[in-house]
## 1
Amino acid sequence: MALIVHKYGGTSMGSPERIKNVAKRVAKWARAGHQMVVVPSAMSGETNRLLALAKELAPAKETQSYMRELDMLASTGEQASSALLAIALQSEGMDSVSYAGWQVPIRTDSAFTKARIESIEDDRVRADLNAGRVVIITGFQGVDESRNITTLGRGGSDTSAVAVAAALKADECLIYTDVDGVYTTDPRVVPEARRLKTVSFEEMLEMASLGSKVLQIRSVEFAGKYKVPLRVLSSFTPWDINIQEEAKSGTLITFEEDTQMEQAVVSGIAFNRDEAKISIIGVPDKPGIAYQILGAVAEGNIEVDMIIQNIGKDGHTDFSFTVHRNDYARAMDLLKVKVLPTLGSTEAIGDTKICKVSIVGIGMRSHVGIASKMFRTLSEEGINIQMISTSEIKTSVVIDEKYMELAVRSLHKAFDLEQVQA
Amino acid sequence: MALIVHKYGGTSMGSPERIKNVAKRVAKWARAGHQMVVVPSAMSGETNRLLALAKELAPAKETQSYMRELDMLASTGEQASSALLAIALQSEGMDSVSYAGWQVPIRTDSAFTKARIESIEDDRVRADLNAGRVVIITGFQGVDESRNITTLGRGGSDTSAVAVAAALKADECLIYTDVDGVYTTDPRVVPEARRLKTVSFEEMLEMASLGSKVLQIRSVEFAGKYKVPLRVLSSFTPWDINIQEEAKSGTLITFEEDTQMEQAVVSGIAFNRDEAKISIIGVPDKPGIAYQILGAVAEGNIEVDMIIQNIGKDGHTDFSFTVHRNDYARAMDLLKVKVLPTLGSTEAIGDTKICKVSIVGIGMRSHVGIASKMFRTLSEEGINIQMISTSEIKTSVVIDEKYMELAVRSLHKAFDLEQVQA
């Protein structure tokens, strides 16, 4: 008997018929002797419907008070779907109960619309599990110390599921989604893309952060921190698929170093076009400049991704960074009003027509020639590289967004990713 | 400066446009210097939409676990509308915050789908009011001692509003609804029906219990118990109507005995066709019979309204009572299986084609001839009376439902209710 956490996305919960199928699948696992906790997302379309209503009424300024109400509003989607799943399980003859985040409670900080989980109490859930109940816990939400409802940001249900699995020391957390696992790259761009049977936690972290939308990045961080065995698998297999077969399907995110040794060095190509590039030209090359620029951006609550500072000449340097495209206009305003006047710099140049393409793989830095192979491949396709950043397990480049598909396909081929995994 | 509670029904909250109008109206009251608490219902149609989803998934048996999930589900409607109203108020430049029942908290018992309010903590709300915030509190719901969400039953938002007004010792509770007050009877049946400027709490209680659907009966009980000045008024007046005029519109439910003296003895005609009649023929006329019959019915959780026991002859009597039509079939089964065999009575006769018509008025019993005038009026129209029951302030008769409109119109005219109120 194991303690298993299932997480189902909005598509899987999209209609009463689909909820019934989820209930049947969960009941199958429970009848096989497992203690089951399920974290569902809101029914597909529901969160958008609610936020569209809010948008019609929204104040000009996005105050904290407004964000708080957005969380009150959006959290109802998961509360409703959780109750419906509990009801469907009862119809399957399973004793089942649903809890909103505050009822568990899942405690978070007070950063409305993007709160972070601080702790999860497990007494209530464990008592239910021991009494033979299937426990449904709303994804996406928690409660702060002042009893305000918070949400974890888009895709936060993945994080909820992993956090719940960590708190309960679950044997495995299964993320059911509309893809059947993690691929070497997006199959819509490269038809030869191949499903990975296993991927290391570190690679998954980079893939998620680099725009591979299979899992919310924070859920991967959580899984890594608490060593939660995590599997991504399809919710579109028939619910009555053989349970042993199902338990081995999808992609397992692993934490053991050993399994990595046999893998290819590059395990996937990630990409996204969510970012915009900002360059400040002619910045005085002296200590504190990076802080002066990025501190102001951070105060504006804008996340910065890549940061590049070139070697200066004549006491001046160029400073570039990328932000999410949604934050681009706000970041430019902020720089023009608050930063440029104090810098004595004359110009901030922006570009929203960029994309970021990355090769991801454990031990990349110790394998000579991986990065240069990437650069050569892009050069052979006539693609100009605008920015480069590297880490232990990835090399990312910023290029013109019109070359994105071409770059991904070329790199997928160059690194032999269509070959079957060892 | 007064502390005012507003309650808005689902129709008033039915679209973003309407929510904006509610926000403008509330902002007008706040700007006039009042401390404002608002209790909204779910957007019209939302509760039905949610319960229809539940119905598609519902188990065969309505267990407590199922009822609990229904409350988890249905309560989301008010949480969403409350957040939307807070957002709309913020757009109007008002500082505003919404609370779900559990956040206040509004404590109830654990009778899912029909919980009763036990207490309301006012610290948090009062602190917000003192800080100049408009406080929105979800109608219809509370939390039990085990941190389960409960709901108060259909129309429960009226009760929430009155209970909140009582807890905060509000100066007045204004129930905005789709009628502009309490009428002498339903204007759809009697076009000459007249709006009452005031109605006593006791009369309102009878009107509500007798099927006048303006207010949920429990909200009237609450208002009476805690002497909450309660006004029913229209939400369809323009939001920018003069506030002094608005404050005097609708119908005020009063608690002072004095104001009743000047009123006509009969203030309204109430009616409903929600009930069914059950008669048990040839019951042994001995002590304990009523309990033997109605005890079994009560154990089946079926509410009984009118109860009539005729004088017995030959040691036997006939025993009749009415139940809600929805409970009729179940009540008949229960009697046949559990009660008749032990009574030695041979027959239970049922009739679902009945209606109840009542005249309501303070001090009715002390005014000779009121009841007999009612009976004469019905007799003149050739309407046969099947059951009669009386109280201090009402006389009710059960008649064939096909005569309902005729009876109501005749009585309205006979008691001069179309005349303007003194």
## 2
Amino acid sequence: MKDIAIYEKQSFGQKLGFGRKTALLIIDFQVGFTSADVLGGFNINQAIDNTAKLLNAARKAGLPIGHVRFATANNGRDVGTFGDKVPALKTITEESPEAQFVESVMPLPTEYVSVKRHSSAFFGTNFAAWLAYEGVDTLLITGCTTSGCVRASTVDASAHGLRPLVVTDCVGDRAEEPHHASLFDMGQKYADLITLDEVLKEIA
Amino acid sequence: MKDIAIYEKQSFGQKLGFGRKTALLIIDFQVGFTSADVLGGFNINQAIDNTAKLLNAARKAGLPIGHVRFATANNGRDVGTFGDKVPALKTITEESPEAQFVESVMPLPTEYVSVKRHSSAFFGTNFAAWLAYEGVDTLLITGCTTSGCVRASTVDASAHGLRPLVVTDCVGDRAEEPHHASLFDMGQKYADLITLDEVLKEIA
Amino acid sequence: MKDIAIYEKQSFGQKLGFGRKTALLIIDFQVGFTSADVLGGFNINQAIDNTAKLLNAARKAGLPIGHVRFATANNGRDVGTFGDKVPALKTITEESPEAQFVESVMPLPTEYVSVKRHSSAFFGTNFAAWLAYEGVDTLLITGCTTSGCVRASTVDASAHGLRPLVVTDCVGDRAEEPHHASLFDMGQKYADLITLDEVLKEIA
Amino acid sequence: MKDIAIYEKQSFGQKLGFGRKTALLIIDFQVGFTSADVLGGFNINQAIDNTAKLLNAARKAGLPIGHVRFATANNGRDVGTFGDKVPALKTITEESPEAQFVESVMPLPTEYVSVKRHSSAFFGTNFAAWLAYEGVDTLLITGCTTSGCVRASTVDASAHGLRPLVVTDCVGDRAEEPHHASLFDMGQKYADLITLDEVLKEIA
């Protein structure tokens, strides 16, 4: 990134670190994002494999865990203009195969689950309220896509007063350039970028 | 963008067009974003000049107009982790010179105004409620930065059921790559990209 | 109400009327609210019968229709302190008999549906976004309880810029005094109080 | 309340108690609510006097303190249908005498302040985000009116996962019946009712 100097000069990119209590968020690792023929592509499947490891460690560490997936309950009307912009979204109903969580990162009955209709895990869900109730101030963010739902959730996590930590090996996108561009923006403005290994050491 | 084919294959990037009633949103064209020594840079000042033309036309056409600016009312505490990530934000108090609207795009007393503490014009404001009350379904989006507050507002406009139209000559960023990367993402997922000339013809 | 004079003097209780486009909202007419042994009581079952008539008329008139019900997806953790205050709520899981819509007001697949975890139909749902997408500005409000979820939804409908019209024969509560007290407050501050007959004439 | 038995049978009205960290919220103790000729009446002025004592104690105890007041920034358009229902609200501009905080409960520059356009302290503000950033899980609620902004804020505090504690001597209304009816509802469904003396002992 050739323009990095202006970010440094303007004080962007400081480190947040871990706070008082950490939760794990997994976004849209559902069947429809595992195939480039539907909504997947590039490095998403690798990110799912890495996240399965993190999920396992988070459960051992007793972290609150939240899972969100995308689906429409209303033939696409409840997805609004997002569905008009990307018509494939209108076909992903709550019961469709594409809407089901991937087996390796399947929620347990005690874990938080929301079906969302838009990009952010916070929009139209009570995810923020659940985090407040659990006393969480730090959010490990995993899922897909980096430039879509991961980024929208990261921006909202910041706005909701949380410390967003984006786990770089555990987020994936359908294309490489948007993946890297959004990691850069998130790391400068909203979130710490942290590797899976660093997280595993911290929460062990 | 070398990966554009996968977006096309997956149905991204359809056109929304204008709807029933259009409003204009101007984001963060405030003094602190006019200088690269504070939070500005690259093409922001040109975007302000173009937006002044659009504002003039929108007033003539009788469009509802909303203005938002960023500031803290509480020594930066109310900016949360966003201020910890970018400490310069904590110094922009409501009364500071950096928080004041730029003269050429100054609001009229009858126009909607909010001070916001985060990226999105929708977060922590009643902008969405005002748009609903005005009967607006289409939002012309201008302001800065493309990869920050413009993008966050565009994602939220989509989630709120609106048609977001990003006016490409009227949005600016402190650096070139993030500007173009966010235009691409917004155009594929959430918004139509539209030029100032196209808008001027439509609303005349 | 002996204090009504002060409300009149202070300009409360003006009429809103119908606007551009009307939708119908039905709140929490689910099995658990049909019995005083669970969460029901007083006039709720009569309100359900009346609402079935309104629903039928609204479908004939082509109004957008939204249904919400209360349930927890997470053993009550996602209900937060609301569940600590009223522990019976924690047992109403999404699949429980108490969480299912009452037969006479069952949604059609094309109608908007949300499961909510709190009182307001707007909180933690994308109901407001769906209304915006449908171009709705006027909301007929039915359901239970008058002093709980109906009132919370009415307050939020007002805040979201809509015209809330509470259909007095179609809302019910578990106890009489709170029912009447909340009707008074809503009629003075947020909503028009309107009878089923008046609505049927208007939308016919 | 003759119907109290059904609330007890259905498990309503359990106690929440204090949690990990407590904040104080003061709602709409502004000049316009001190006179029955504008928006005041009944016991509001007594509630202000009591709240001044609580504010003093809260500052000594180092509690985070939030102040909200009602005003329009836009000639009443940004108040939406709330202003159509209660036209007096449209005249309370941000700079008007009626919109200014009462002297005895004036905020300090380090305390959280928001101007709101609707009933709830949470709606169209970033109050919830600030509470999350401060690590607050328990909210002492004071202000006016009990049946209006206090109740709306209490319902939202519950929905946001917080423990709402309504300080009964520190909330007031323009009329007696709505004051008592809303205290009953809040105590059964959303919040603990607690006296000023009890709070002073707890936070001392």
